[in-house]
Amino acid sequence: SSGINAEYGGKEKKKKKVAKETEIRGAGSKKASKPRKEGKAREKKKERDPNRPKKPGTAYFQWMNVNRPKIKEKYPTFGITEIAKKAGEMWRALDPESEERKKYEKLYKEGMVKYEEEMKKYHWNLSRNP
């Protein structure tokens, strides 16, 4: 047993260490997590201003929102994750020069222009009414 395993740090040592830890904690118990430090509460997320404009979805997300029902219909047994993976495959398979893909990229660019204008107005209003 001291042959190859001893040369590479050995699996034997690891097995013994794991066995020892299991023996100390008890067979069915999980590894204990670190206790939280006293006085340090988890930082809360900053609340989003409801007046702040939302960024437009990317070209892919806009395409996916339109095509998700078609994918669900074609693959009724797929769950959320499988549908998202299939949509990603289909989007990547679209030719970057195709009319369909260009249509959604144009929608995204137009949405970004509108978003930037709305953000200018939003920041202007914030500076006037803090």
Structure report:
The chain has 130 residues and is mostly helical. Helices cover 61% and strands 0% of the residues. It contains five helices and no strands. The termini are far apart.
Average pLDDT figure? 81
Helix content: 55-70%
Radius of gyration based on Cα positions: 27 Å
Write the element-wise H/E pattern from the N-terminal end onward.
HHHHH
Using DSSP, what is the number of strands?
0
Terminal-residue CA separation? 73 Å
**Biggest sheet statistics:** none
Instruction: List the uncertain runs.
Output: none
Apparent shape? flat
Indicate the proportion of strand residues: under 5%
Number of helices: 5
Structural class: mainly alpha
Features:
single chain, 130 residues, mainly alpha, 5 helices
What would a concise description of this structure say?
By secondary structure, the protein is an all-alpha fold.
What is the element layout, followed by pairings?
Layout: H1 4-7, H2 11-25, H3 59-74, H4 80-93, H5 99-128
